[in-house]
Design a protein that fits this description.
Length: about 200
C-alpha cells in the first residue's frame, strides 16, 4: 500500500515537471516561430526547434517512467507470481464491490495503474504530431506495460501479471496524450486568433 501511494505521489510530481517543461518549451518554440515570421532578415528554421523539442520531451518521457518502474518492479505481497490473462476480470471484480474506496488496495491498483503512465503519455505525445498522437502514445504505453508485466513474472516478484494492468496502463498513457492534444489545440487556436502586429507598428 505504501509503495503504491509513494509511486502515485512520484507520478504526480513527474506530471507537474512534465507540464512545466512542456509549457516552457511550447512557449519558446512559439516565440521563435513568431520572431522568424516577423523578421525579413532571418529565414525560419522550424526543423531545429522541433528537433530540440523532441529531445527535451523524449528525456522527460524517460524520466516519467521512473515512478512506474519503481512500483511495478518491486516485490509484491504474494508468495509466488501468477498470470491473469482474462481481460477485465480484475477490473470488474474490483468495481463490483459497493464499499470500494481509495482506502481499498484494489481501488489504489486501478487508479494507480492509470495515473502512473499519464506523465509518460503527456511527455511522449510531443514526440509525434498529427491526429494519431494519442493512438501512437497509447500503443507505446501498451508495449512498455506488456514488457514490464512479462518481467514481473520472469523475475518472480510475487505479483500478478495481469492483462488488466496493461489495459489500465495503456489508458493512462492515452489519457496523458489526449490532455496534451486538447491543450495544444486550444493554445494553437488562441494564437491564431490573436491580432498580428502590422509593419507600421500597429495591429491589423
Amino acid at each position: 500500500m505504501a509503495i503504491h501511494g509513494g509511486g502515485v505521489l512520484l507520478s504526480v510530481c513527474a506530471t507537474a515537471c512534465a507540464a512545466v517543461i512542456g509549457v516552457r518549451q511550447a512557449r519558446k518554440e512559439a516565440r521563435e516561430a513568431r520572431e522568424a515570421r516577423e523578421s525579413v532578415w532571418r529565414a525560419p528554421t522550424p526543423g531545429a526547434g522541433a528537433a530540440g523539442g523532441r529531445a527535451v520531451f523524449g528525456a522527460v518521457a524517460l524520466l516519467a517512467l521512473v515512478p512506474f518502474l519503481l512500483v511495478t518492479l518491486s516485490h509484491g505481497y504474494g508468495a509466488e507470481s501468477r498470470i491473469s490473462a482474462v481481460p477485465f476480470r480484475e477490473i470488474l471484480d474490483a468495481s463490483a464491490h459497493a464499499d470500494l474506496d481509495l482506502s481499498d488496495v484494489r481501488a489504489v491498483n486501478l487508479v494507480g495503474n492509470v495515473l502512473l503512465l499519464v506523465p509518460f503519455g503527456a511527455a511522449a505525445a510531443f514526440l509525434w504530431s498529427g491526429r494519431r498522437r494519442v493512438l501512437k502514445t497509447g500503443l507505446a504505453g501498451a508495449v512498455f506495460s506488456l514488457i514490464v508485466e512479462v518481467a514481473q513474472y520472469v523475475l518472480s516478484l510475487g505479483r500478478v501479471s495481469s492483462v488488466d494492468d496493461v489495459l489500465l496502463n495503456t489508458a493512462g498513457a492515452a489519457l496523458g496524450a489526449f490532455l496534451v492534444r486538447r491543450w495544444t489545440g486550444r493554445t494553437r487556436a488562441r494564437r491564431l486568433t490573436l491580432p498580428r502586429p502590422s509593419r507600421a507598428g500597429g495591429r491589423t
